[in-house]
Amino acid sequence: MAAHPDSGRTTEQIVSQFLSKALHAILAARIPYIHGSTPPPSRHPRKRDRWFHLALGDPPPALEHPSGLIPNGVMEPLVVDILLTPRDDPTMPEAIVERWLAQCEAPAPWSPLHSPAETSSNSFLVKRTYKKSIILLRSIYSVLRLLPAQRVFKMLCASNQSYNYDLTYRVSSFAEPFSRKEEAEFQYHCFSPVETQSGQLAVSVLYRPNLSQFNLEISSLLPPMLITDYVGSPAADPMRAFPASPSERIGSRSSTSFPLRGSQHGQPSTSAPASAPLLFNRPHSWTGAPSEGPSNRAQPPHHPPTGSFYRKSAFNFDEFKFSPPFYMSPTPSPPKFSGSYMQSPLRAETAPVSIPQSGMSKVKGLRSPNLSDPTRNFLPPPSPRSVRTTDPSSQDSFRRPDGLRNSDGYSNVYGTPKGLKDGRDDSGRFSLSGSPRFTFSRSSSRISVPDDLDDPDFSYPFAVDDVDSSDSQARSNDGKEASDFGHASSSHKSQDAAVGVLVHMLRTAAPLRDSTYSSQSSKSELQEEGLGSTSSFFMSRKASDALEELQSYKSIKEMLLSQSKGKLH
Amino acid sequence: MNCEVCELKELVVEQFEVREVLRCILHTIIFHRALGLVRPRDINCELFELTYVQCGVPEVEKEIEEKITEFISKVSKHPNRTSQICLSFYETKDKQSAWFSSKTERVYWERWFINLQIINQRVHMKPNQTKIGFDPGENSFSLEEKKLRRTALEASIRENLFQIIKFVNEKMDHLPHIPPNVEGISYPYEIAILSSSESSLDMLKRMLQTGHQTTLS
């Protein structure tokens, strides 16, 4: 429709555009992520927005050519079914929660509209039709927000966890009749029809007033999403390069990377311009960018949270994946905080993980600053709030609690959206899953993660950072790991991680001065020659250890203070 | 021109709920009457499980907030009374009263009356109950009562919103012509706070006599 909406329009154009726009409004308010992971940018209203004076933004890709969804012209009814589709159990039937029906009913033979009108009144009728269509569309837009399915839509959009149901849709020109029993479960809302020269434009909706029967609940955690920009990313610090593609990581001891993930529509969800492709392959990256969601009151609900929100998931999962030393390394004093710290936020989500120790020992940065126990390996634990999601696909290698579906079933449900291919069949049936953005990432992550774990050269991204972060501070042998760690915990580690490291060091550090030994040491000081060289040597060794540790603590403290000052400013 | 009047169902609200309720209703009405090009914004109520739509015009939001603040300050002086807000849409016409003078007058073509009964929050505690020794049964009953009241209010608000939508759908013929190439508000409007002693009928009479409505201060 090339005509400008406010001039030279015909009744058929008005009806056709109305149906298209109504469909756009319905899908945008009911199907999560219909626009993909990247919300359409707000921009100056285009010609399409000016129709009915309601700027809804760019239509979703499925509606780019609405004629494909409304193939039979404006006189055929447009039936839009909104369905709750079970995600975990494909055998369970999907249920229609709303049925929108819009059609232009031909006027009755006795209706004054049936007889051809004079040209002068045509213009008046068209203007009146257009004005009323504007109001009708506004009403549809408002009613969409008042119906019970809106709450489901908000839940699916807002949460970073997946539910046991998805909202999908089906567009056709034929409404499959409900049985009497089914019809009794629906309520009916009818909008006042708008008279047009082609007939009466009527819109109605059948909706379920109560959706509690569907028992919407969290089913499993979302797979990690790719985070393309994060604090300390190579974009911010080019010196810290990560491998840009999976091929680069083969044979390298650098951090793992996952194949390219993104929205189904191929747009990287990042605000970083030039370095986006490089960053896009680093799922372990994390951004501190605030996320959006329906809790953001200024955004339409059909705009999903930004990629940054989901990029957190990717980071968190990978940190979790790389932090198993807490469960693996024998330590003289068991790291109490690590076990509980790691397990408590995750208890409801995943089981402890075992990671091959061989990969860990090869990474320099993992060595404890305490040389007395070289097997004491640790990594900075992830921050508590960030460890919330894991990739269900990778949980094949983890021990997952019951109730979480396996990755096969998950990827099957989130397979390639068939609707895009089936959308143009004869029935006009069009069905897309409620979260098409998962398609590409799910299967690829499922393949890649086990391979990474089996890689003998597997190493941790943070370990690479630790290794790669060369600093100007002198590296004595005794203080090497401490200063390495102290400066490795630089800007790209979160403050929480640094605090966790410090706490762990404090807990696992050997006592500076043993109470029983202190008396002995004092005696040895008084009777220096009597005790012999061994105890004095042992004493001095303890003091040197203590000094090393004190220096490392000081460096960590300075780093934390500088970080906090940097954030304040 | 006919002046269509819509009297919305009375809502019983507590003082802290007034702002949210009025935002919901006023913005919904204006969204259906701001027939210029708008980029709608969905707003989730903080106090209720409701989502309403704003037309996205900052001036409108600002004016509504100011009027709500004014209303709240008035009703706080006179609690436990029914108060009304009137949202009116009008056209300005030049009325030539004499040969060399003319004045503009407002011709109202639609009025919305929003009725609120403001109640004080009740505290269900007996005088002899201390903070430590309160009866949990009594406290839980008051919480349950509040929850029920909140649910009922939410349903009433939803009913009011559907009433608005039904009205705007049914009554379209009295709407003036939409100015071309207009963005946002297409018709001028005003928001008036009625005194609690004055009913809508009294107000209509007064307006017919004076010819225009001035906002009560």
TrEMBL record, chain A:
Residue span, Autophagy-related protein 13 N-terminal domain: 93-210
Lineage: superkingdom: Eukaryota
Keyword Glycoprotein: no
Compositional bias per record (Low complexity), positions renumbered to this chain: 433-448, 518-533
Region ranges (Disordered): 241-310, 334-493, 513-534
Gene Ontology terms describing biological process: mitophagy; piecemeal microautophagy of the nucleus; protein localization to phagophore assembly site
GO cellular component: Atg1/ULK1 kinase complex; cytosol; phagophore assembly site
Keywords (A to Z) from UniProt: Autophagy
Biased composition (Basic and acidic residues): 419-428
Biased composition (Polar residues): 252-273, 386-396
Family matches, as InterPro entries: ATG13, Atg13_N, HORMA_dom_sf
PANTHER family, per the entry: AUTOPHAGY-RELATED PROTEIN 13, PTHR13430
Protein name: Autophagy-related protein 13 N-terminal domain-containing protein
UniProtKB/TrEMBL annotation, chain B:
A Pfam short name: ATG101
GO biological process: autophagosome assembly
Entry GO MF terms: protein kinase binding
GO cellular component term, pick one: phagophore assembly site
Keywords: Autophagy
Xref: InterPro entries: ATG101
Recorded family membership: Belongs to the ATG101 family.
Protein name in the entry: Autophagy-related protein 101
Organism: Rhynchospora tenuis
